[in-house]
Design brief:
Shape: elongated
Number of helices: 0
Distance between the termini: 20 Å
Structural class: mainly beta
Largest sheet: 11 strands, antiparallel
Helix content: under 10%
Number of domains: 1
Number of strands: 14
Radius of gyration: 24 Å
Strand content: over 45%
């Protein structure tokens, strides 16, 4: 079991990952390996979008919590002494959830909390996948942006068939495939 983690002062960015490896070799000709991994990263100033308000740019940011799960699988199989097959497949599942929306006011401020202004509950509202901002509280929406939450599922795979014809000559067939699905809807809860 392996663990890695990193974070910055004020905990504005953090990353934690846990992983392990399992290998099973039922015969000299076959080996199976699985390397599951789970990580959680957080960023308090993740860019979301930009807008214009009173002829000033608004760089909108939020806190994001991203959870990622992977299960790389590898199969090595020796069919004959001069013929082998290698397969690698990896499901990759990631979910990002944004909250605590704010806009940048002083990006180079020494104090982290002085770099932004958070929207109050009176300034921000959410309806059907869209955030509306009434920054000056005049009961008129000043700008909008779409909910940036995401779910991403991907399956990557490679298959190699390797044939050793002579001592220094090899022929191989290679196949690669990637399948993915992306959605703003919640695919899993982490």
């Amino acid at each position: 079991m392996n663990y890695s983690g990193q974070w910055r002062t004020n905990k504005e960015i953090s990353f934690n990952q846990i992983s392990t490896q399992f290998t099973y070799q039922p015969s000299n000709a076959l080996q199976l390996s699985l390397l599951p991994s789970f990580s959680v990263s957080k960023n308090k100033l993740q860019y979301v979008t930009s807008s214009i308000f009173n002829n000033n740019s608004r760089y909108i940011v939020a806190e994001i919590k991203q959870s990622t799960l992977t299960f790389p699988l590898r199969i090595d199989y020796i069919i004959k002494p001069n013929l082998s097959m290698q397969y690698w497949g990896q499901p990759y599942i990631s979910r990002g959830i944004y909250d605590n929306y704010k806009y940048i006011t002083n990006p180079t401020a020494n104090n982290f909390d002085d770099r932004y202004t958070s929207y109050t509950n009176d300034q921000i509202s959410f309806d059907t996948g869209t955030y509306s901002i009434d920054e000056n509280l005049d009961k008129t929406n000043d700008y909008f942006f779409l909910q940036p939450d995401f779910s991403f599922v991907q399956w990557r795979s490679n298959l190699v068939l390797l044939c050793h014809l002579r001592k220094e000559e090899q022929k191989f067939v290679y196949y690669s495939n990637t399948w993915y699905f992306t959605s703003a809807k919640q695919l899993f809860i982490i």
